[in-house]
Design brief:
The structure is a homodimer of 309-residue chains.
Chain A (H helix, E strand, L loop, with lengths): L2 H13 L2 H8 L3 H15 L4 E4 L2 E4 L1 H23 L7 E4 L6 H12 L5 E4 L6 H10 L4 E4 L10 E15 L20 E3 L8 H13 L2 E3 L7 H10 L3 E6 L13 E4 L4 E11 L5 H13 L7 E2 L7
Parallel strand pairs in A: 3-4, 3-5, 7-8, 7-9, 11-12
Antiparallel strand pairs in A: 1-2, 5-11, 6-9, 6-10, 6-11
Helix pairs in contact in A: 1-2, 1-3, 1-4, 2-3
Chain A binds a DNA duplex (30 and 30 nucleotides) through helix 3.
DNA sequence: ACCAGACACAACCAATAGTTGTGAAAGTAG
DNA sequence: CTACTTTCACAACTATTGGTTGTGTCTGGT
């Protein structure tokens, strides 16, 4: 039972002759004859009355015709359902609080009619996220995956740089500085709780530390934002690093200060991972959008050298 | 897009591995692999994630699976729809007033749950009815078709003999006879209006006339039963021939007499025409029924020699 | 490190579906 | 009534497809 055979039958039924159906389908009349014969042999019922001036449906043919059309419609629907763009693009935004989620949300707002799922995978590290993309669990993921770890079949495009800012309590020496260079953070205690070893976060902060000679304490479990903010507010020496994108997400209840970093500006580089050759129009639009909006700070930016080549 | 391919996909999706699906479908693992690959190539989307411990559906596969099942269900339905017996048997009973209609009705009553359409075709003659059967417009027809005119592909079985009776007015010489031999009708005026030339009726009455030396006036249009009954009631010499099966259908308003014919009993032989090899269970049941009920008068019966060999 | 399980690739073979050429049947025109 | 046209079917051939077996690669477990 082949779609082409059913299509042939429907065409013959509608045109009333084999030759016309053959022309319409772009095959020879004999091929149509064979297909119909095969169909009739398969269902063990003759469907058409052949005369010397065309063919008409008999009773069984009249019964079968709507069913054949229904099958064809179902096939059409099935093919449609998996056509690129007919289901929402599923993007892993890492964490709803930070830059990728905001970027995707802005994209969603600026593209009316888009259908898009922003999800947060509980993936340990970027490699696992890449695997999830490859396996089709999600369509794309914002991660900081080292270029040499991008698996075959996955494309990676650095599309979103999130500048880091220093977050300190009111008693911190840098509390009133307009900005600070990362090099000048050497010696300061920087606490970034909840970074798991082996993740791209760990690698990122390790690279940052090494480049600027910092001592970042990025171990231990995630104690929650409240605990961190409490600690910052109480301490005259403790600081942490946050993405500038999540500005409004940190409650102002603790009178914490955000100090921009410049000269250079360390950015957390978000690489969009997606299946190579994925034709989903929403994916193309998202990439175009991010490339156009240009969230990547153009000059005097630092990022780990293992991103992008 | 082939049913077998979709079935394979569904099986793989449900078993979780190619090998198990292959076993279930009775083909090799490689064949399953090829089929899935062909399907994915056709819809230009990968549906399954292959791992070393089986295969799982990806997002597109999950979307596609119910559609594939729906297509298979539609195919199943389509095949079911034309399976012998899934639609009512369509029998041409020639004329609702006479023997075939009654026989079919009795069959219908004695077979609960049967689904059957008794129709009256406006066919000029038996050959056309046979053609209609052949073309599948109807499934069977009760006719008196000469055996040598049965077209290829049609089977004919004489299943119903309708004995003729003489219908006369009260003033007719035979009005009070308990029965009469057809040979004794020679010389009597017999009027059977509405017989068209070239039909099996005309041939039947012609054969009857010739055999018993009768003079049957079977020409002219059908004036309607009322006109015929009026004429019979008024005349002391006019008679007509009717089937015994339609006994109760002739109103008794005219005080007409029915005289049975015997020695021999002329019967109108109904041959059931149907497509050779038709598997419709209702058709088989109808034939069995008629053969068992045995409407064919067993002895001393006359019928034209061109029926049944 | 090795083995077992799972899927893909390659080579080969049989069956299928297409092609062209031709024929029979039946309606149509001269 | 014959010749022509149209329609579908059949036959022979070919190309493609879909199946098989044999083998390879990858991965997870022992």
């Amino acid at each position: 039972m082949d779609a082409e055979v059913l299509r042939t039958f429907v065409t013959v039924a509608e045109t009333g002759q084999f030759q016309a159906a053959a022309d319409e389908l772009g095959v020879s009349q004999q091929a149509v004859s064979k297909r119909i014969a095969a169909l009739e042999r398969h269902i063990e019922v003759t469907l058409l009355v052949r005369t010397s001036r065309g063919s008409r449906l008999n009773l069984d043919g009249q019964v079968f015709l709507p069913h054949a059309k229904k099958v064809l419609a179902a096939i059409e629907q099935a093919e449609q359902a998996v056509r690129p763009g007919s289901r929402p693009l599923r993007v892993d935004v890492l964490n709803r609080r930070i830059a990728p989620a905001q970027a995707v949300y802005r994209f969603y707002r600026s593209h009316p009619g888009t259908d898009l799922d922003a999800v947060t995978l509980s993936m340990e590290n970027a490699a696992q996220a890449a695997q999830a993309v490859l396996e089709g669990t999600i369509d794309a993921s914002f991660r900081a995956l080292p270029a040499d770890q991008v698996p075959a079949g996955i494309s990676a495009e650095r599309l979103l740089d999130a500048p880091l800012q220093l977050l300190v309590g009111p008693g911190h020496p840098l509390a009133d500085a307009p900005w600070v260079s990362p090099a000048n953070l050497a010696g300061h205690r920087i606490w970034i709780p909840g970074i798991k070893p082996g993740t791209e976060w760990a690698a990122f902060y390790q690279a940052l530390s090494k480049t600027f000679g910092l001592s970042i304490d990025a171990l231990g479990p995630n104690f929650g934002d409240e605990a961190l903010m409490d600690a910052l507010a109480d301490s005259a020496s403790l600081s942490t690093l946050v993405g500038s994108g999540d500005r409004y997400l940190w409650p102002q209840t603790h009178d914490l200060r955000r100090i921009p970093l410049h000269d250079p500006t360390p950015v957390y580089p978000h690489v969009l991972l997606f299946r190579s050759g994925d034709q989903h129009p929403m994916l193309t639009a998202l990439r175009d959008h991010l490339r156009t909006v240009g969230p990547r700070t153009p000059h005097d930016v630092w990022a780990p050298d293992w991103v992008d080549h």
